[in-house]
Please model this.
Amino acid sequence: MNKVTLSFSSLFVGAVSACFLLVSCGGETTEENSLSTTTITTDEEIAVSELWQYDHASTKVIWTGYKLESKAGVEGSFDSISVEGFSPGPDASKCITGVKFELFTASTETADTSRNRKIITRFFGEMINGAKITGEIKSIDASEGVGLISVTMNGVENDLEVSYEMDKDNVIKMVGTIDVPSWNGQAALDSLNSVCFEKHEGITWPDAEVKILTKLKK
Model:
């Protein structure tokens, strides 16, 4: 067995140190006081904090239809939306490419209950699978500010060209124009015009602007 020898100086230093601790900590030492905590952030955690994330609550799909010879706009929205396929990443335009969505037409909201009912029953209600509109963001070219969205409505799938931008508040905006007859929707359009004939003065325009908004976050 090895013999341990303590010098007087060593004992003196140890005693002084012990007294200092007792005085400075009020005569009591605890594990909490004697230990320090170091937070280590891994490269993986740093990387995740730099990725764009999807915020469903911020997503809105707003449309504007037109009536009268003056082409007066009527704005509405779909309040029930399903979204899937968002991929977190450092490039926002790539994150939303491939995203699929469903718009439930019974959630149509125009701030007029009577008009809501007419659009739901006499427009979407006249369509094939009119309960929902589905689609997919096929491509986004952020440098050119354009994109392409596949839209299926009334049993017809067409590509919709849209403008694309992301503002300083990280809000993505895509805007395009749907020509209803291109989705075989003339009969549905005529049905809506017949019940709105007086207010529309017989004119319901076949095109509608569609605006998609969503705010990404990190």
